[in-house]
């Protein structure tokens, strides 16, 4: 792997066929859910394509496959229904004139920092300081953090004036745009229909954010404006009430040694508003993010790649343009791609009900004033407001698979990353791809990136993703996949598994997820599929048997 490309991360420890590196550098600029490891995606692209060939990712999310295709001199088509995903992808791959970015930041700082900081004034001993963090518990101000004249962090109890200042802000008197839509009701992600997006922020932080966005929108250079908007959305999580307080026992900066140390948490997933949370100075959130993005953009300059963006498929397919991005439903846009024209498809599709992407991205999409096509999202959402059940999910996903088969060149490959413990989604996926004449060539596993937002921590959970690689093989005679349930075939299944697993189990200390991986892949090669939800039961038997 070329060194210049390998700038971004460290390896994780899970055992798998492919070991993920955590995403740093450009891949750490903006949050997205279920980001896939760039180093593994790169290996697959290198393995299944040659330079100048066309890679397609119909669910490109934060754009890792798009970036890796460009970095390895492939052409790429990236599709995602989520405006935020395409926005993140564009800003990810963009090479920018760094000095212009720095200049524009300085201008922004000059024009708005003071105004924002004035919202967080902390008066102590007749002097004024700028508050950096405020800890709230059950909507009561508990702690105020600020920097003194020596730039030392001071943690103090709130004064009457601190509370009075905070109380002077209200949602009603904010002069500029801010997001007002209601959430879809979905308790799984803590979203309630009686709440609106702006309520994720304190009135003070909302006001600061609206000032900031208003200034950003006025930047003349479109490219730099987009990157500033990117810094903005990347910092909204830290500027929200979703930042919880992490408590640790240990040394404290004050006098007492064993006091509780409070650390800043982050926005993890869903719209959970903790009872105790940080209100963080919006300028600081933005500046920190800007610095991180600036550093990453400086690193990115060392990578030798070019972007020839186009909006026309023709120009990509037959001329030398190398990238096209569509913010459209994959099931519709793939219809525009001619038969047998794509060299390789690599994708990580929506995983059933794991993350309702459009609901989760509402905060960003609304700040960006994007229109969102909720109707066509491929997802199982528990929100009753949406009508997104497993039938709809399977149908739309199958539509996409059908299109992928049609547009992929014969004998070319399709790698699909998948992770689910849900029978319905697995069975649909496996049987449909089989019916379409996708020949399953390889089942491999990859570890999660170290900072992956949702990790499976259950004892008998998956802990790795599968990468299933299929070949488009119109000549194959379709053999049906046998679905067997553990209850009815207990003896047989144990026998099959014993052959594969026990020898290894005795020799080495296998973790449950490795056994799940092994069993699923071995059986699938024999066209047998056990209900994946039965795996924990099987594992229990294996482990008891061993001991
Ligand atoms: C598992 S995520 C991909 C994440 C990606 N692997 C990454 O590293 O960022 C699945 C993506 O599918 C997108 N999606 C859902 N329905 C879609 C549709 N109908 N057409 C295109 N994209 C869709 C979601 O917005 C989400 O970004």
Notes on the structure:
- The structure is a single chain.
- The chain contains 17 helices and 16 strands.
- It has helices at 38-48, 64-71, 83-93, 98-117, 160-167, 203-217, 222-236, 282-300, 313-317, 330-333, 357-360, 362-367, 390-407, 423-435, 490-507, 512-525, 535-546, and strands at 54-57, 75-79, 121-124, 127-137, 140-147, 153-156, 245-249, 260-264, 276-280, 323-326, 342-347, 408-418, 438-447, 464-472, 482-484, 528-530.
- The strands form four sheets. A seven-stranded mixed β-sheet has the order 10-2-1-11-12-14-13, with helices on both faces. Strands 3, 4, 5, 6 and 9 form a five-stranded antiparallel β-sheet that branches.
- A hairpin with a 2-residue loop joins strand 3 and strand 4 (127-137).
- The longest helix has 20 residues, at 98-117.
- S-adenosylmethionine binds at residues 32, 34-36, 58-59, 61-62, 64, 79-82, 85, 329-331, 348-351, 357, 376-378, 396.
At a glance:
The protein has helices at residues 38-48, 64-71, 83-93, 98-117, 160-167, 203-217, 222-236, 282-300, 313-317, 330-333, 357-360, 362-367, 390-407, 423-435, 490-507, 512-525, 535-546, and strands at residues 54-57, 75-79, 121-124, 127-137, 140-147, 153-156, 245-249, 260-264, 276-280, 323-326, 342-347, 408-418, 438-447, 464-472, 482-484, 528-530. The protein is α/β, with parallel strands linked by helices and 547 residues long. The structure holds S-adenosylmethionine.
């Amino acid at each position: 792997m070329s060194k210049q490309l390998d700038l971004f991360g460290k390896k994780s420890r899970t055992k798998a066929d492919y070991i993920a590196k955590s995403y740093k550098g450009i891949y750490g600029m903006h949050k997205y859910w279920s980001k896939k490891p760039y180093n593994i995606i790169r290996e697959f692209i290198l393995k299944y394509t040659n330079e100048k060939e066309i890679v397609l990712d119909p669910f490109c999310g934060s754009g890792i496959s798009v970036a890796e295709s460009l970095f390895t001199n492939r052409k790429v088509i990236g599709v995602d229904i989520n405006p935020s995903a395409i926005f993140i992808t564009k800003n990810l791959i963009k090479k920018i004139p760094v000095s212009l970015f720095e200049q524009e930041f300085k201008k922004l700082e000059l024009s708005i920092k003071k105004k924002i900081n004035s919202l967080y004034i902390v008066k102590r001993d007749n002097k004024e300081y700028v508050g950096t963090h405020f800890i709230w518990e059950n909507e009561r101000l508990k702690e105020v953090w600020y920097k003194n004249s020596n730039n030392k962090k001071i943690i103090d109890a709130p004064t009457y004036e601190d509370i009075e200042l905070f109380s002077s802000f209200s949602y009603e008197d904010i002069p500029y745009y801010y997001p007002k839509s209601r959430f879809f009701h979905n308790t799984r992600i803590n979203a309630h229909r009686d709440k609106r997006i702006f309520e994720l922020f304190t009135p003070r932080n909302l006001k600061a954010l609206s000032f900031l966005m208003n200034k950003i929108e006025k930047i003349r250079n479109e490219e730099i404006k987009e990157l500033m908007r990117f810094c903005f959305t990347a910092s909204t999580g830290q500027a929200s009430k979703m930042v919880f307080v992490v408590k640790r026992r240990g040394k404290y900066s004050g006098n007492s040694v064993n006091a509780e140390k409070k650390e800043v948490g982050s926005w993890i997933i869903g719209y959970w508003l903790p009872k105790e949370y940080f209100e963080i100075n919006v300028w600081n959130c933005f500046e920190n993010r800007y610095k991180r993005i600036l550093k990453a953009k400086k690193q990115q300059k060392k990578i030798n790649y070019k972007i020839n963006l186009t909006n026309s498929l023709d120009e990509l397919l037959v001329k030398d343009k190398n990238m096209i991005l569509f913010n459209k439903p994959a099931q519709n846009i793939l219809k525009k791609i001619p038969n047998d024209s794509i060299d390789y498809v690599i994708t990580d599709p929506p995983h059933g009900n794991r993350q309702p992407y459009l609901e989760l991205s509402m905060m960003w999409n609304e700040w960006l004033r994007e229109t969102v096509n909720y109707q066509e999202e491929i997802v199982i959402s528990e929100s009753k407001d949406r009508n997104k059940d497993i039938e709809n999910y399977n149908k739309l996903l199958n539509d996409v698979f059908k299109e992928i088969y049609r547009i992929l060149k014969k004998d070319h490959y399709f790698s699909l990353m998948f992770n689910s413990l849900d029978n319905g989604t697995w069975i649909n996926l496996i049987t449909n791809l089989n019916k379409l004449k996708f020949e399953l060539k390889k089942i491999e596993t990859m570890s999660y990136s170290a900072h992956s937002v949702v990790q499976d921590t259950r004892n008998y959970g998956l802990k790795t993703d599968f990468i299933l690689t299929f070949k488009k093989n119109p000549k194959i005679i379709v053999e049906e996949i046998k679905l067997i349930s553990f209850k009815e075939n207990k003896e047989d299944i144990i026998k099959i598994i014993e052959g594969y697993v026990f020898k290894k189990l005795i020799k080495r200390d296998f973790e449950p997820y490795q056994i799940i991986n092994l069993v699923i892949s071995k059986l699938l090669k024999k066209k047998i599929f056990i209900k994946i939800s039965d795996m924990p039961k099987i594992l229990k038997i294996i482990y008891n048997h061993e001991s």
